[in-house]
Amino acid sequence: RRERQRFVDKNGRCNVQHGNLGGESSRYLSDFFTTLVDLKWRWNLLIFLLTYTVAWLVMASMWWGIAYLRGDLHQAHGDTYSPCVANVYNFPSAFLFFIETEATIGYGHRYITERCPEGIVLFLFQSLLGSVVDAFLIGCMFIKMSQPKKRAETLMFSRAAVISQRDAKLCLMFRVGNLRNSHMVSAQIRCKLIKSRQTPEGEFLPLDQCELDVGFGTGADQLFLVSPLTICHEINSESPFFCLSQRSLRSEQFEIVVILEGIVETTGMTCQARTSYTEDEVLWGHRFLPVMSLEDGFFRVDYSQFHATFEVPTPPYSVKE
């Protein structure tokens, strides 16, 4: 079957684009910091470089302007002459003085004299403005670098979901694993069934979301993710798959979105990993191969069998039947 459009890709990216916002686009400017963090890295680096470059040129031009208006650029700097900034003769020297002041380098060759009140005011303004710009941009870059999005790439989901019997009950199952030795603290998993439906009143819902029970009442949704786990959804009278059979699975169109959330042990930040399964990726009458084995004093996980399944005898009928 031709692959159809997914709501959530296998890598967790949501295929949703917002358009025709109109006046609502101004909301992005009201939360400019979050907007800047959400931008791609190339735009972040461009804004970072442009902000500092423009700020440096503007402030250096202001120091040069003070020296020009006072006549420091046209008068010989003798022993008795007191300029606003010593040893500033042109724009490059004014730019170097600004960089030395902003970066607190202090070579000692250029300095403000006490007979320049406008220079003292500009120096205070430069210090405040520099602190604000540094806090904003460096804070934005730090938050963007520390985002745990890359941590989600080491959380694996099986390529397919399976339907088979477990404890004499028909269950929908998929597998999740953690590739790193660092644990996910308070890991919790949720599943959403996305399927179009029509209400009794005739309203068509193209992307109706329905919750799949993966152990809310029993606490099975709270995971101790130190080894690959098989997540199980029991198909019963409360399940949306109550009428699903092996034959009807071929004609169904749905998508199961899996959301795994937890706290990264090393950083303490919340991480979320997502994936999805369409009806083509649900295998009826299959079970996952074991990946755990006991060796000398430890348990070994064989991730080469993580996605592997094998067929098991399973009734082709729905639970309702």
From TrEMBL:
Native source organism of the sequence: Sinosuthora webbiana
Site entry (Role in the control of polyamine-mediated channel gating and in the blocking by intracellular magnesium), positions: D134
Bilayer topology: Multi-pass membrane protein
Cellular compartments annotated: Membrane
Transmembrane segments: 45-66, 120-143
Family designation: Belongs to the inward rectifier-type potassium channel (TC 1.A.2.1) family. KCNJ3 subfamily.
Superkingdom of the organism of origin: Eukaryota
GO cellular component, one term: monoatomic ion channel complex
Transmembrane among keywords: yes
Main location: membrane
GO terms for MF: G-protein activated inward rectifier potassium channel activity
Any single GO BP term: regulation of monoatomic ion transmembrane transport
Encoding gene, per UniProt annotation: Kcnj3_0
Domain Inward rectifier potassium channel C-terminal: 155-320
Record field: catalytic activity: K(+)(in) = K(+)(out)
Protein name: G protein-activated inward rectifier potassium channel 1
UniProt keyword Nucleotide-binding, yes or no: no
Residues annotated as domain Potassium channel inwardly rectifying transmembrane: 8-148
Keywords: Ion channel, Ion transport, Membrane, Potassium, Potassium transport, Transmembrane, Transmembrane helix, Transport, Voltage-gated channel
PANTHER family on file: G PROTEIN-ACTIVATED INWARD RECTIFIER POTASSIUM CHANNEL 1 (PTHR11767:SF99), INWARD RECTIFIER POTASSIUM CHANNEL (PTHR11767)
